[in-house]
């Protein structure tokens, strides 16, 4: 009976109209549902609410469901979009029945009751070199309309100068209520070590960092940076250009192939990995550059140790956002981003509404926004990336 009800839940959860007519959609896996704290209650409720005809057909001889997407070895630790097991308290991921994605030409219709806006930087506000046309105007309009704007970025760096760096691009730091970066979360978690898993990491780390973009300081963390995987107790990934040697010595440039070799040696020892930037790639002008999330994916495919993500799509950053927005609920929040795997999936898992900006890292994967068949292509891309979430809204670019 549990199996039959599970099949029914998997079948009806993706889409349901206001008239309660159920339309088939891509099933979601039962193992994902089991991560929801109250999945049994949710299952029973959905079964009761289902049309009698459909409920009977399932409980008295279930039809065959479409085959589930196959998963690769190592998926349990980190699936192809890196969403590793976090050891901090997580939020419940039960979600309401998804509605049809709403297409927007600009942001203003989405203002509504959304009091707090969680804004991604790269691919939404700017490309790492210059602001996108109309992005600064859109931020100003949101601020003047009473929105509380928080930068929520998978940047490896701490928040110290995050807002000040936006000023030369045309964004007034006064428009923002604050910023949260995955680099800041990483630093605080390694300094405080609030969980048993973090306390058990040890102090000797192999440090993947940046070179030309500026190495990441580990000052105040009481860490010893080593050069060989055989000497390390854990891996720390801030960047993909160089290997750190501690704050008193310059980082040594390293290729991705060299980093892969170090990961293989570490995987043989099952060393845990801390990822300060879970992004796979990010925009840099007209190009895409490899980010630490790619290292995490490789490491998982090698069968390495447990991977801890310190940024989107992990729940920890959305919990931090709630702390910056007192007297609000998750219904007051809306997240804007260009990554389906990180911005859209992460916010959706945290029960936060989303705006997907098409002309970001996926701009070459999708047809022009609004073209016939766009939503079908978007759904296909989500399936290809193993993204179960769908955005609440989508629009071509960040404009008012």
At a glance:
28% of the residues lie in helices and 15% in strands.
Report on this structure:
- The model is unreliable at 1-98 (pLDDT under 50).
- β15 (353-357), α12 and β16 (393-395) form a beta-alpha-beta unit.
- The strands form three sheets. The chain has a seven-stranded parallel beta sheet, sandwiched between helices.
- It has twelve helices and 16 strands.
- The protein has helices at residues 2-12, 30-33, 39-49, 52-59, 135-144, 182-192, 196-199, 256-268, 292-301, 315-323, 340-349, 374-384, and strands at 102-103, 116-119, 148-153, 178-181, 204-209, 224-226, 234-237, 242-243, 252-253, 273-275, 281-284, 287-290, 307-309, 333-337, 353-357, 393-395.
Describe how the helices and strands are arranged:
Elements: H1 2-12, H2 30-33, H3 39-49, H4 52-59, E1 102-103, E2 116-119, H5 135-144, E3 148-153, E4 178-181, H6 182-192, H7 196-199, E5 204-209, E6 224-226, E7 234-237, E8 242-243, E9 252-253, H8 256-268, E10 273-275, E11 281-284, E12 287-290, H9 292-301, E13 307-309, H10 315-323, E14 333-337, H11 340-349, E15 353-357, H12 374-384, E16 393-395
Parallel strand pairs: 1-16, 2-3, 2-14, 3-4, 5-6, 5-7, 7-10, 10-13, 14-15, 15-16
Antiparallel strand pairs: 5-8, 8-9, 11-12
Helix pairs in contact: 1-3, 1-4, 8-9
